[in-house]
Amino acid sequence: MNQDIIVGDEIYWQPEEQRVAFSTHWQGRQIPCFIMLHRLEHLSGQPLADEASVILAFEQVRFDIEELVCERIEEEAFAPDGSIGL
Question: What is a single Pfam family found in this protein's UniProt entry (predicted)?
């Protein structure tokens, strides 16, 4: 678990984009974040066929996602809209 950032509890499957949207709080700032389905499948080690399995997999690898987001923030790898994509 990373203490520098806090991943919010609200996560959303966005089927059109094939990604999960969530927000992270870092230094008092809310940052929109996204993880692509293929990346989540790689982290979880399983194919994800529906929204329920996607959300469950996200929760199972939440701490890994926090670490990846923290790395992207440290690299200042923000998208033009201020979001972080994984």
Answer: DUF1488
